[in-house]
Amino acid sequence: MGLEQLSPNDTKGKIITCRAAVAHGAGEALVIEKVKVHPPQKKEVRIKILFTSICHTDLSAWLGENEAQRAYPRILGHEACGIVESVGEGVKDVNEGDYVVPLFNGECGHCKLCKCPHTNMCQHFGVNPMKKDMVADGATRFTTVDGGKPIYHFLNTSTFTEYTVVDSACVVKLSGLIDQHSLKKLTLLSCGVSTGVGAAWNTANVQSDATVAVFGLGAVGLAVAEGARARGASKIIGIDINPDKFIKAREMGVTDFINPKDEDKPVYEIIREMTGGGVDFSFECVGNADVLRNAFSSVHEGWGLTVILGIHTTPQMLPIHPMELFDGRRVIASVFGGFKGRSHLPLFAKQCLQGMVKLDGFITHELPFKEINKAFDLLVSGKSLRCLLHL
């Protein structure tokens, strides 16, 4: 799909009717139906989505695991790439026809957090799973074909649709860095790969010869492993209860494997024995308090760091006694791998395309958009890392 197929002059300033996969209830199959996508307003961008993929965060939202996220009808999705169809008043960073990646964790560039070099949070456009409309006017840019009722947004992006509208703070331009054939791989930079690699590079700052334990070998966990491999980690231990994941994990830098179901003692004890006291870094990519406990206990006293990436949907508190932090072990969470999306992603995309990070292994399946429910089934069954959907 090329730029010549967009014809922005035919649709600019007009309502577009297109296909979208709409969620109507928790756990219900998504429905491919016609929706209306309204023109971008001030500081907004309308994007023609070319490729999108499914992340476990989409899965959690689809299942309605957090009651506060249940707003229907809703268009989910936050990993994608596409072409700018039109821009609203005041948008200067992207133009019609630009290749772009949407950002669930935006960067306005002006707030106190955006100006701080120690965080990638944004006061106005940071990740917010409860947000269901646009900031500008509290309305949606999606409506039903019959009756014009609102269809809610998701994670600043809503990519399970042929066209979407996002705030300009939530889109990064990649034109000039890539060609059309590389575009689909960069869909992964919207979330999974950036989140995992960035956690290893930015949050933990893994260095050569470091020892690493990755709890959960989904796409994010393997991205952590890939980031650690690229930094020269000497030992990368992968922990997962699905042995089928070990083959792919070995290809992506994991050196040792532990299946908790095969062991008769806690995983952290095994890791301490393997590494002479514990790893330098552990990454919890599951969103489970018991797993987090093992991850924290597996790092070395004095300097070990545990990075939380998994989404914990229950109200359960951290399974750590305050006194355990006095031996030098630390714990921190990482959102979007510490990347400031608009500032840092162009360089990261270039590094990926130069081979510093191997993207091809993350795309395990490709399907047409109309088979999105099959893609969800593949993720639920643990058979796919990322299923790329072609719109």
Structural overview:
This protein has 8 helices and 17 strands. Strand 10 (211-215), helix 3 and strand 11 form a beta-alpha-beta unit. Helices cover 20% and strands 22% of the residues. Strands 3, 4, 5, 8, 9, 16 and 17 form a 7-stranded mixed beta sheet that branches. A 6-stranded parallel beta sheet has the order 12-11-10-13-14-15, sandwiched between helices. The chain has 391 residues and is an alpha/beta fold. It has 2 domains: 3-190 and 358-390, Quinone Oxidoreductase, Chain A, domain 1 (Alpha-Beta Complex), CATH 3.90.180.10; 196-335, 3-Layer(aba) Sandwich (Rossmann fold), CATH 3.40.50.720. Residues 1-5 have low confidence and may be disordered. Keywords: Metal-binding, NAD, Oxidoreductase, Zinc. Belongs to the zinc-containing alcohol dehydrogenase family. Class-III subfamily. Homodimer. Its EC number is 1.1.1.1.
The helix/strand order is: EEEHEEEEEEHEHEHEHEHEEHEHE
Low-confidence stretches: 1-5
Q: Which CATH architecture of the largest domain is right?
A: Alpha-Beta Complex
Q: How large is the radius of gyration? A: 21 Å
Rounded average pLDDT: 93
Q: What would CATH call the class of the largest domain?
A: Alpha Beta
Main beta sheet? 7 strands, mixed
- Helical region count? 8
According to CATH, what is the topology of the largest domain?
Quinone Oxidoreductase, Chain A, domain 1
